[in-house]
Specification:
Blueprint: H1 13-18, H2 22-25, E1 28-32, E2 39-41, H3 49-65, E3 74-77, H4 78-85, H5 91-102, E4 105-109, E5 115-120, E6 123-128, E7 133-138, H6 141-148, E8 153-157, H7 158-163, H8 167-181, E9 192-197, H9 199-206, H10 217-225, H11 228-231, E10 238-246, E11 254-263, H12 279-282, H13 298-306, H14 315-331, H15 338-341, H16 346-356, H17 358-371, H18 388-410, H19 469-480, E12 490-492, H20 521-532, H21 536-539, E13 546-554, H22 557-567, E14 576-586, E15 589-600, H23 602-616, E16 620-625
Parallel strand pairs: 13-14
Antiparallel strand pairs: 1-8, 2-4, 3-7, 4-5, 6-7, 9-11, 10-11, 12-16, 13-16, 14-15
């Protein structure tokens, strides 16, 4: 007997709803295609958008709890259903929705595959006591059979469904989800699907009511199509464009409607690339930002891993490109023509951050750049725009936020608290020497002025200032200046030669004659040797931020992974915190590999240099970057 195809639910539905993280976790539930594009309502069509959303939630929760669909009844808290439907949802309205679902029957599938006719959507009731208030429901056997065996399926995104206001939008979304599932997103590919529909198809898919027994496209457009793109704007799998195709005849009657689905890269949730706590700080992956713009550092590692076979770029380039695009959007100052042409640039990027969340928006931005480089250049090691200004803008955002955070805490001890707020909900910062940021633009801070209330020092006793781990990380990022400037000051030195220390201008001004020390000739000679001995090991790494080994020959990526990476896997210990980097020629392009930030001494650097020399036959240079 062949094994059943039972795809897993993506993301925890219960956690997403209970923590109010539906858009962030973005749970997805699988459906057989028969339940998407081959559905017909056979009873009176009295359902609403909330009814459709509730049914999808109940079906998804039952499948998440039991993929075998063997449980006769499933239990779901009433509070969970109400949170899913939104702030407008009420318990009485929920009970009415359940009645409408129980009185509705549908037919699924077709005779060529499998078909079930006049199937009731659900049987349900509410069970409540002083301690619990739950929905108890049972799905009919045909639905359980369809969900148990899915030879062909697509995923439905629950977050967009919970926000849709039209039942017709929900039904068309199911059709589009089935069509999109038949195509796979490919970096650099067309990644487009066109769903063509006649007016008859549209009425069949949506169950739209006839107008005096006839189909009326004008009314259909007004009631269904005009708001469809907006209703589906939070769908992650694709974006939508609608095109009306007219016949070449008198009056130009409608021939069909083409729905253009622009496929997006699979969500970053589907790629595994994690690391230990605080490892992203040591390896200088990503960086902090204002809360509403902050991207999880995992996203940049996932981009490197997922798109490596297409364009061999390190995570830092994706992060720098993102900072450029973000500053471009906030300042409304285009850096390239892509600002007006791309889905994840300019005001469209800010909207994506608002609707999809910064993690998913950043991920889709990376995918768009990989498919057609713009800010990222064709050379995997380069950017087409200098990121320095964007990097500084990010630091200003954090500095402004941290300053406001400290002021808000310190003002609690004052007799009067300024409760005035700006349009974005941030505290008034008129006396802070900074300019508040908004989602429309970014202004650099005004010259620092002494605030009316002295800022609490992070060195002195801070009183009741509560600095969280996140704030400490942000502050550490600012103090350490972890972002590398694009133009680095290079100090190229041979590894075997000591660094000459600069002689002080008044060297010897306070020198005591040797005769006055009471030393004989032998002691004087030993003392002179000690004084003259260079301290190369101690001085070499002072003030050095990065050490770069550059190979003077090409090498395949396999050699980098099998030979170069292992050299840096040892646990080094030393007083200097230095970023270690390897440059190499791969496929004719210069590639830079960030090996991470290590605590090293000169002996560790010499050991690495020696080991690399064995593999590279000494064909490499060593650079010390201040």
């Amino acid at each position: 007997m062949p094994s059943l195809i039972q795809p897993a639910t993506r993301g925890s539905i219960a956690k997403a709803i209970s923590t109010k993280s539906l858009s962030k976790i973005a749970p997805e539930s699988p459906r057989p295609l028969e339940m998407l594009d081959a559905v017909e309502i056979t009873s009176a069509d009295i359902l609403t958008a909330d009814d459709a959303a509730l049914h999808e939630l109940l079906l998804s929760a039952a499948y998440e709890a039991d993929k075998g669909m063997s449980d006769e009844f499933t239990t779901l808290p009433v509070s969970t259903a109400l949170k899913f439907l939104g702030e407008h949802a009420r318990r009485d309205a929920l009970k009415i929705s359940m009645r409408r679902l129980m009185s509705t029957t549908v037919s699924y599938g077709n005779k060529k595959t499998r078909r079930f006719e006049d199937v009731p959507l659900i049987f349900s009731y509410i069970e409540c006591t002083e301690k619990k208030d739950v929905i108890r429901y049972s799905l009919p056997e045909p639905i359980r059979i369809l969900m148990r065996e899915m030879p062909a399926y697509a995923y439905l995104e629950l977050a967009p469904i919970s926000q849709m206001k039209s039942k017709y939008s929900v039904r068309l979304y199911r059709v589009f989800a089935a069509a999109a599932a038949r195509e796979k997103w490919v970096p650099g590919g067309q990644n487009k699907v066109i769903v063509s529909a006649t007016l008859e198809d549209l009425y069949k898919w949506t169950g739209f009511a006839l107008d005096n027994g006839a189909m009326n496209f004008g009314k259909f457009r007004q009631r269904v199509l005009n708001d469809l793109a907006s209703e589906l704007s939070t769908v992650r799998r694709f974006s939508l464009r609608i095109e009306e195709i007219r016949k070449e005849a008198r009056g130009r009657p409608l021939e069909r409607v083409d729905f253009h689905l622009n496929l997006r890269a699979p969500s970053h949730h589907l790629t595994r690339a994690t690391f230990e706590e605080n490892e992203h700080i040591k390896r200088k992956i990503g960086g902090a930002d204002a809360p509403e713009l902050r991207v999880n550092s995992n996203v940049w590692v996932k981009a490197q891993k997922t798109f490596w076979n297409v364009q061999k770029r390190m995570h830092r380039l994706y992060f720098q490109a993102w900072q450029i695009a973000l500053q471009e959007a906030l300042d409304e100052a285009p850096v390239s023509p892509g600002y007006t042409q791309r889905q994840f640039r300019g005001h469209r990027l800010l909207k994506a951050i608002s609707t999809l969340g910064p993690d998913e928006a950043a991920w889709q931005f990376c995918a768009e750049e990989v498919s057609n480089p713009d800010i990222l250049e064709d050379n995997p090691a380069l950017l087409s725009v200098d990121p320095t200004e964007a990097i500084e803008a990010r630091k200003y955002r954090i500095r402004a936020r941290n300053y406001a955070h400290v002021q808000s805490h310190s003002s609690r001890n004052q007799s009067q608290v300024d409760e005035s707020k700006n349009v974005d909900g941030a505290r008034n910062t008129n006396n802070m020497g900074v300019t508040a940021t908004s989602n429309r633009g970014f202004s650099r801070p005004a010259p620092a002025t002494q605030p009316a209330n002295k800022q609490v020092s992070f060195i002195e006793d801070a009183g009741d200032v509560a600095v969280s781990d996140l704030d400490a990380e942000l502050l550490g990022d600012l103090i350490s200046g972890a972002d590398e400037p694009t133009a680095k000051s290079l100090v190229v030195e041979a590894t075997e030669e000591p660094v000459e220390t600069e002689q002080s201008a008044d060297d010897g001004a306070f020198e005591v004659p040797v005769d006055d020390l009471g030393l004989d000739a032998t002691d004087q000679e030993l003392l002179a040797d000690l004084i003259d001995e260079p301290e190369a090991t101690a001085c070499k790494l002072e003030g050095i931020r990065e050490v770069i080994w550059t190979a003077d020959r090409g090498m395949p990526m396999e050699e980098v992974e099998k030979v170069i990476w292992p050299v840096f896997q040892e646990d080094f210990e030393g007083p200097h915190t230095v970023n270690l980097t390897v440059r190499a020629w791969i496929d004719g392009c210069a590639s830079e590999f960030d090996c991470g930030v290590f605590h090293v001494d000169q002996a560790a650097i010499d050991t690495i240099t020696s080991r690399l020399g064995k593999h590279l036959d000494d064909y490499f240079d060593v650079e010390y970057i201040r």
